[in-house]
Amino acid sequence: MALYMYKRAEHQKLYNKTTLKNLKNPDMQMMIMILLLCSVIITILFFTKGGKSNTPSSPPSLPLIGNLHQLGHHPHRSLCFLSHRYGPLMLLHFGSVPVLVVSSMEAAKEVLKTHDRVFASRPRSKIFQKFLYDGQDVAAAPYGEYWRQMKSVCVLHLLSNKMVRSFGNVREEEMSLMMEKIRKASSLPVNLSELLANLTNDVICRVALGRKYGCETDFKELMERLTRLLGVFSVGTYVPWLAWIDWIRGLDSQLEKLRNDVDEFLERVLQDHEDGDRGDRTDFVDVLLKIQREKSVGFDIDRVSIKAIILDVFVGGTDTSYTLMEWVMLGVFKAPKTNVVV
Predict the structure, then answer these.
(1) Which of 89, 140, 244, 253, CA to CA, is 20 to 30 A from 163?
(2) What total number of domains does the chain contain?
(3) Could you tell me which residues come within 8 angstroms of residue 133 by beta carbon, excluding any fewer than 6 positions away?
């Protein structure tokens, strides 16, 4: 028994010496500090209760990622489910980015009309900043003097009633071409999504760029890459300290290459308009180049702003338009009685 107690005491002394030696190790000290800091943060986030807040109701969130884990594979369905539980105004946190979810007509009116200036600026996104020339367009530019100037150019010179009516023949021609393709298909199956996508692309190309580019393989591939990357989730946008993940998975290099390819294509379009004889034909690029030359709007528009606005028109006028038409056609097919009305 005495021998056992002696050996146990010796083991305890050896253990204490080893523990003391490890605690003096700088790496061990750093690890302990990190663990203590994490414990304090978790304690504050989960167990500290503050006073009443004036913010909208919000589902419980996790540290660092916020409510990102609650989006699932179908974000629109997840947001709908959460809004039924937490109300028409719901505050979420996607990482470090606060997101206000509005899901009623009354609340949407307050946001889009009554308090529109408060919500006018778009949140900064790495993907949008790359593609849209660091916010020199209309869609991603922060609310301010530059945004008001670019908006006035679009509303008064590109989207006026006179300008829209002048392209009526373009829309009619492209619609007739699509209907002709459907007639030629006869009883064969038709890919309606592809037809509607080509229709909107061709109309926007002729209106904004002056001619159709849909038959060019490089242009199709460029638009496919653009549409795909616009919908990619960027980790660094929502969790900045994890931005290195975007670099590791190759997103940063893909964005950089696509930005250069899009800029090269738009530069070629502008150069063709400046070098060629346009005659009586007028498109959005012609209008913007004329404004730049004549300085007729009271402020300068540089070349980058022109390319940014044209890219806005193209991105905003193609994918959204044909997606809307596709859903309308789906609704018609699912409700045959409305077929007669349409």
Answers:
(1) 140
(2) 1
(3) 304, 305, 307, 308, 311
Contact 204, 317 (CB under 8 A): yes
Alpha-carbon gap, residue 305 to 235, rounded angstroms: 28
- pTM for this predicted structure: 0.74
Least-confidence region, from 287-291, 304-308, 321-325: 321-325
At residue 292's C-alpha, the angle toward residues 279 and 216, to 5°, is 55
**Contact criterion met (CB below 8 Å) for 197 and 189:** no
pLDDT at 76 over 70: yes
Residue 200, C-beta contacts closer than 8 angstroms, at least 6 positions apart: 317, 318, 319, 321, 322, 325
**Residue 60 is encoded by which pair of tokens?**
């419980």
| pLDDT for the residue 117 | 81
- CATH, residue 135: 1.10.630.10
Contacts of 262 (CB under 8 A, 6+ apart): 131, 222, 226, 311
Is residue 62 a part of any domain in this protein?
Answer: no
Amino acid at position 125, single letter: S
For residue range 8-39, what is the model confidence (pLDDT) as tens digits? 455 455 444 544 454 455 554 555 565 666 55
**C-beta of residue 314 within 8 angstroms of C-beta of residue 208:** yes
Q: What SS3 state is found at 55?
A: coil
Cα–Cα distances (Å) from 229 to 7, 160, 223, in that order, read 67, 31, 10
Which among 259, 236, 256, 232 has a CA at the least distance from the CA of 246? 236
Percent of the residues in the chain that have a pLDDT greater than 70, as a whole number:
80
